[in-house]
Design a protein that fits this description.
Blueprint: E1 3-6, H1 10-21, E2 27-30, E3 43-45, H2 50-55, H3 59-65, E4 73-76, E5 82-86, E6 98-100, H4 101-110, E7 117-119, E8 123-127, E9 130-133, E10 138-140, E11 143-146, E12 164-175, H5 178-181, H6 183-189, E13 193-198, E14 201-207, E15 213-220, H7 225-228, H8 236-245, H9 252-259, E16 266-272, E17 285-287, H10 290-293, H11 301-318, H12 323-352, H13 357-365
Parallel strand pairs: 1-2, 1-11, 2-7, 4-13, 11-17
Antiparallel strand pairs: 3-6, 4-5, 8-9, 9-10, 12-15, 12-16, 13-14, 14-15
Helix pairs in contact: 1-4, 1-11, 11-12
Length: 368
């Protein structure tokens, strides 16, 4: 039985690894030309996803690359008032450590047989047990797993659902080598996560393993805001100045984070799939990760993708001669688990973008 996984993200690789541990071969088809074809994003807060790494036999290697100090958090009002500072003791358990997404992906890739991932295979369509790729090639499969992210092409085989705009847009900027280039800002941000919330706007700053601080700005804006805002995203210096203008009344020490950024300015719309999305179980095809349940970016997506991959792998190992039964078992659990996570993520995103978000977040972390 041939298992084809479309997408070499965390979920697809976790599935391939758990299958490999259980003596089952799979092939991962990835549109990118190599593991280094593009940047993999920033840090991830891995909590429930640690179970997947245990099932994959990789938990010790994960702890070796995880950053416990990444659990530190600072929460501020836009006027600079510090509401909460949590510093992680050196001997604290790694309950929610941060890890560089690229490092975690490399850990999973290195745990697979050399030819398990076929790079440069952009999935186009599937029919009659054949995958068709953009270069004209094809490959046979018995089970197709769509692990191809928010813009999944495999999803169309199961549902008409498409990601919809949430009413928020995100702009990512960053400061490279912050300890050397801006030690004052480095001290302000600290070792982990730095949040400034209020007035329907948010700024989050987060240390990456390579010394870069990645900064995300989120605004309550319409879907066409990038085109209508007048921000010249092709002129980074001017774009930074306009972004600062959109934060009137914010403490100058906070907006200095934006002024210090380099020329990487990346606008992204925030889109999600409907909470509680399901589909009739269909022999021969299923989905995992963002392809199945795209959520707001509040810390659940990567964990759910890792769990999806591991639990689908375990179901297939438990039913090696009955893929449809394995898929049905996996989907039943996945729908329930990820619906709860998606509801929680939507509520958290709404909280983050509310006018009094900082006070609400403080109450969330310090109830009663």
């Amino acid at each position: 039985m041939t298992i084809a996984i479309v997408g070499a993200g965390l979920g697809g690789l976790a599935l391939a690894r758990v299958l490999h541990v259980n003596g089952i071969d799979a092939v991962v088809y990835e549109r990118e030309s190599s593991r280094d074809a593009r940047g993999q994003g920033g840090m991830l807060d891995i909590h429930s996803g640690q179970r997947a790494l245990r099932e994959a036999g990789l938990i010790d290697q994960f702890y070796a690359i995880a950053r416990g100090e990444g659990q530190d958090m600072r929460l501020l009002e836009p006027d600079g008032t510090l509401l909460l500072q949590e510093d992680t003791p050196d001997d604290a358990p790694l309950e929610r450590p941060e890890v560089d997404r690229a490092d975690l992906r490399d850990l999973l890739l290195d745990s697979l047989p050399e030819h398990a991932v076929r790079w440069g295979h952009a999935f186009e369509s599937a029919d009659n047990g054949l995958l068709h790729f953009a270069d004209g090639s094809s490959a046979a499969y018995d089970l197709l797993v769509g692990a191809d992210g928010a813009g999944s092409r495999v999803r169309a085989l199961l549902t008409d659902a498409r990601p919809a705009h949430t009413g928020q847009n995100y702009v990512e900027v960053g400061i490279p080598d912050i300890d050397r280039t801006h030690p004052d800002l480095a001290a302000m941000v600290g070792r982990g996560n730095y949040w400034v919330l209020g007035n329907g706007q948010s700024l989050s700053a987060q240390r990456n393993g390579d010394g870069r601080v990645r900064i995300g700005l989120i605004f309550n804006t319409a879907e066409d805001w990038f085109a209508t805002s007048g921000i010249p995203f092709d002129d980074p210096a001017a774009a930074r100045a306009r972004l600062i203008d959109l934060l009137p009344g914010w403490d100058s020490r906070i907006t200095a984070l934006i002024a210090a950024c380099d020329d990487t300015v990346v606008p992204r719309s925030i889109t999600t799939l409907p909470v509680g999305l399901t589909w009739p179980s269909t022999p021969g095809v299923t989905l995992l990760g963002d392809a199945a349940h795209l959520m707001p970016p509040v810390g659940e997506g990567a964990n759910m993708a890792l769990l999806d991959g591991a639990l689908l792998g375990l179901a297939l190992a438990a039913h090696p001669d009955d893929f449809p039964a394995a898929v049905k078992e996996y989907e039943r659990e996945m729908f329930e688990r990820t619906s709860a996570a998606a509801r929680m993520s939507a509520d958290m995103q709404e909280l983050l973008m509310s006018p009094d978000a900082a006070q609400k977040m403080l109450a969330f972390f310090q109830p009663g």
